[in-house]
C-alpha cells in the first residue's frame, strides 16, 4: 500500500509502505475512505514535534471501513464504517478511567502519526479499537464525519469547555483557521452574548462570520481595543488561542478580563512569554490541553442532526494519491483559501467524497 511518510524536517513523500497487520488482540485494521491534514502535521514537518521518528506514516484523523479485528475486539467488526479518533485509549489506566484519554499511560493517547504509523495511508492499524473508533450513522457523509476525529472535539474540549464558556459571555477567538472556526461553532452551543474572531486573513474573517462570530477584527488593526469597546473596557470573559505562536498567546492574555479564562489550543513550537508582572493580580485562569475526545459521541450525534456547518469547512478535496499536493494547498492557506482539505480514494478536487 501507499502512505505519506515523514523523513525528517522538510522531507516527506507519498510512497510504498508495508501493509499494516494486527499486532495486538485489541487492534483493528481500517481501510481509509477519508482523511484530512491537520495543522499539527505541518508542525511535525517543520520539526516542531521531535518525538516523531523518520519513517513514520503521518495522520491522526480518518473515516474508513473495518477490514480486520483482533480477537479481543468486541464493539466493531469487519464491514463497519467508523471514525478513527485522533486519540487512542487503553481504557484501563487511571487517566482513562477519568476520561482523560489524551494522557493515557497504557499505550494510548496521541499515538497515530506520532509514535506509530498514522492514517494518511490506504490502510491503518488502530490500537485499542473498542475505545478508539466510533461507529458512524449512514446519514453522516465521510468528508463531514472526518472533522470529528480531531478539530471539533479539540476546539470544544480544549477551547470551549476548558474556557468555561457560559451563557451571556463575551468570547474572543484568536485565529480563524479550522480550529478557531470549530471553536466558534461549538461556543455557540452555550449562548454567549457575543463571539469576536481575530484573524489577519480577510477570507477567514468572512468564514468566521458564517460560522457565527458576531464581530471580527484584523489582528493588525487594534483587536484589543475592539474587545474593550464591546465590553465597557473589561475585556473578554473567555479568550481562545487557536494559532500557536507567541504573539497570539500574548494577545490573548491582554484581551481577557480580570477573573476571565484564556484557553490555549494552539500547538506552540517556540516559547511564549507569560507576563506575570501584569497578570498576577488579575485572577486570570490559563489552561492548556491535549484533546481527550470524551465528547466525540455527543458531537457526532449533533453533527448527524445538522447542528454544525461542517460543509463550509471543507474547501478542497483530493484523491489519496495527491497527498503531497493537498499538503501544499493546506500549508499555503493564505493564498489558496484552504480551510480543511479532505482526501479519499478515487476522488478529484472539489468533488464530494464517496460514503460507504
Automatic annotation (TrEMBL):
Residues 8-343 form the Enoyl reductase (ER) domain. Its cofactor is Zn(2+). GO terms for molecular function: oxidoreductase activity; zinc ion binding. Keywords: Metal-binding, Oxidoreductase, Zinc. The keyword GTP-binding does not apply. Belongs to the zinc-containing alcohol dehydrogenase family. This is Alcohol dehydrogenase. It comes from Streptomyces fuscichromogenes.
